[in-house]
Amino acid sequence: KNGKIDLIAEIKVEKDVETGLNFVVLLNIPIEDPITIPDNIVEQNPRLLEMGLWGKTTIEYNPSSSIKMTVTDFKPFQIANVDLGQFAEGRKEFTTNEWIDILISTIGYNPTILPQRKKLIILTRLLPLIEENINLMELGPRNTGKTYVFSNSSFYARIFSGGKISPAVLIWNLLRDSPGEIPTRDCVVFDEIGKIQFLNAAEMMGKLKHFMASGEYERGKRKGSSGCSLAFLGNVDVSGERPIEEFTYVLPQDMRDSAFIDRIHGFIPGWEIPKVGKAEVYLSRYYGFATDYFSEIMHQMRRKHEFIGHIANTIELQNVDRRDQIAIERVASGLLKLLCPHGEFEDEDLRLALDTAVEYRQRIADWLHYIAPGEYPMKKIGYKVRG
């Protein structure tokens, strides 16, 4: 009506090389008419070309122009730059237990009512956001915050809640020649896993398993690698703190495959996490980091790989194959990044990360033995510290 409107929107920009124009995709508003955005706004916010950014967006309408809508202003909500060194230095002022409480409070939980093990299990939900190419599964009862952690902790995650997913959306859209979610996101979350349906299921599962094993994707003429991590979330009936359903049948039919399960690096025991009750009891009122700041910290920490090198040089794993080794190193590395971002950790910090990583991978090994005992014999994974 007024020729201009301000929106809170998540926008992504696609470049038309032939015309030189930048076209905006409004990810949360279904406007199909073309919308342009000038070069100077894109150059100030280059991540618009990589993935969606949330911000205050001004769109102006010009009826006399061939393309009638243009973004004339964009102010991102996300922090563009953070000082990772300052964050790491600040960690030195806290004990590990104090730091765990800060992280728990950051993602919204009240740390004062949770025992240490439950805090640690909740924090492992963040591993796909801080470690590259890690694949985790969590099954648990409803209303424990599985989806909440991903949707409220990072701008770089994409959540699919059930429904149909195509290779074009997940990997590459050949018609538009544009990347899908795996090439552009830090993490892709498959929520309500039992209700997920893949279009072209055989093709999709083959490409998904290839990516989970190698970090490489391919569709048509498009090939590449991505550090995107994957999280598979689902609901399972629980009695006390024990699941009463067999895990395999929680998965959709296409995923009931030992080759797929073997590519999952760890299994989070979501049945141990309490349901979120009254807000004044379960939700935090304590100090934590602002979400946009902590999101950028985790995004930057993904590129730090020295934790895996230290683990590989310090630990000797027992009764493992190559996939077990990769899984344990990545889970332990991600946990050390969360707990000790300054790179300094005591023996108990290292053992805490390794005990968790071994437990999570052991649960996968037990599952594989259950569904394919001939191919996957029973084994007990262990480790010892060298020297």
Describe it for me?
The protein has helices at 39-44, 84-91, 96-106, 116-123, 127-130, 146-153, 167-170, 181-184, 201-214, 258-262, 279-282, 291-301, 306-314, 322-339, 347-371, and strands spanning 4-15, 22-26, 35-36, 53-61, 69-76, 135-140, 157-165, 172-173, 178-179, 187-198, 216-219, 222-225, 229-235, 238-239, 242-243, 266-269, 315-318, 382-385. The protein is of the alpha/beta class. A hairpin with a 4-residue loop joins β8 and β9 (178-179).
Helix proportion of residues, in percent? 25-40%
Strands of the widest sheet, in order across it, are: 2-1-4-5-3
Radius of gyration from the alpha-carbon trace, in angstroms: 22 Å
For the residues shown, what is the average pLDDT? 93
| Uncertain parts | none
Structural class: alpha/beta
Count of extended strands: 18
Please outline what is shown here.
The chain is 36% helix and 25% strand. With 387 residues, the protein is α/β, with parallel strands linked by helices.
